[in-house]
Amino acid sequence: MANKQVVFTDRIVGISIQNGLVRLDLAVVAGRAKGKDGKPAVKMDITHQVVLPVDGFLAGFNVQQKLVKELATRQQKKNGTKAPAETPAAG
User: Fold this and answer.
1) Nearest-angstrom CA–CA distance, 72 and 84
2) Neighbouring C-beta atoms of residue 36, cutoff 10 Å
3) Where do the H-state alpha helices sit in 1-91?
4) Residue 89: what pLDDT?
5) What value does the CA radius of gyration of the chain take, rounded to a whole number of Å?
6) How far apart, in Å, are the Cα atoms of 59 and each of 27, 44, 56, 62, 76?
7) pLDDT in tens, 13-65
8) Are 11 and 29 in contact, with CB atoms under 8 Å apart?
9) How remote is the C-alpha of 13 from its chain's centroid?
């Protein structure tokens, strides 16, 4: 079994497709800055890039959609409201 490496990220700040591979740029909060409009903004530093084939990206996207549905259902039960309408899956 391969060694597992855990990487923390605050958010995905970039995504691109190059030569059939999806590249996700992961970043962490690195302090405060001024935005292009002069208003306060958060400075993000890219720390890692995840590279995977398109089919692997789509499979991961489907897993994320299932998690979002589960979270919506939990919120619905907590609030006693209807879950948001479903969106069609990609792929």
Assistant:
1) 7
2) 6
3) 54-79
4) 58
5) 17
6) 22, 27, 5, 5, 26
7) 999 999 999 999 999 999 998 888 988 999 999 999 999 999 999 999 999 99
8) no
9) 9
- Per the CB < 8 A criterion, the answer to whether 46 and 13 are in contact is yes
72 half-sphere exposure, CB direction, 13 A CA radius: 12
Reading the block at residue 76, the tokens are 């619905």
Q: What's this model's pTM, rounded to 2 decimal places?
A: 0.72
> For residue 21, what are the β-bridge partners?
18, 53
Looking at the chain, the number of H-run helices and the number of E-run strands are 1, 3
Looking at the chain, how many residues does it have? 91
Residue pair 12/26 in contact by the 8 Å Cβ criterion: yes
User: What's the one-letter identity of residue 49?
Assistant: Q
The pLDDT assigned to 84 comes to 59
pLDDT tens-digit series, residues 63-74: 999 999 999 999
Instruction: Return the amino acid letter for 9.
Output: T
